User: Fold this.
Amino acid sequence: MIATASLSTSIFPIFILFFCPSKPSRTVLDGLLMFAAGGLLGDAFLHLLPHASENRITDPFLASLLEEYHVSLPHLLVVAGLLLFHVLEGLLGGNDCEEHGKEHKPKGASPAQGQCLSHTARLNLLADTVHNFTDGMAIAASFASSLQLGVSTTLAVMVHELPHEIGDYAVLLGGGFDKSAAISFQGLTGLGNLAGALFVGLCGERADSAMWVLPLAAGGFIYIAVGGILTPLSARKRGFLEVVGGCLLFIMGVLSMVVIGMFE
Assistant:
């Protein structure tokens, strides 16, 4: 039951991607990327961080240490997540990433933008897998509490994934993936959901690592949205209407997370 629920939250949103354009124009792709950036930041600040803050630190020594120095563990882990993804970008990137970006950059994009988006696509796959892992943990923990809570959590995660998958799809297209590859890799990241559910099933009540994983994922989303999407887009000159339209799509991305949060 838990495995079926976990996989359904990842498989169902993937079908929506088959109706998305495979080769969008530069303007459409930029708009989708702005929507993705808004969704990533909205998810980080409106969902992941608040949920992480709800968890209490069980270690009395760590709790007293953080309280003594007035340090918030979730916010500290966000900074750690930013640093982690910076390190991963360096390890996974390099000359290979630059060549990949030049060969597969989207039509009409500058070489620098193609390199950054290629970088971002790889990092986004990793961040999305981590995010799906935490979703799987939440689903399994909810079913352990009650069947009704498990079903409602599964539906909430499923709806939450719809705008998220569209945004991730745009990031992969911007990074040089074709439609079939983008959908395939998105499907593979969904296995993180099943892994998270299995982790909770194996560890039981000891599986309180969501307190640590959620803010790390939030840091990754912030890094990707700001450094990997907004920065390369702002480096290219665009018309006034294109900038305004991009801002509106960015706001729509944030609002999609606000609306979803209302039903969680």
In short: The two ends are 21 Å apart (CA to CA). The chain has one domain: 2-14+24-262. Confidence is low (pLDDT under 50) at residues 94-116. The CA atoms of residues 82 and 223 lie 6 Å apart.
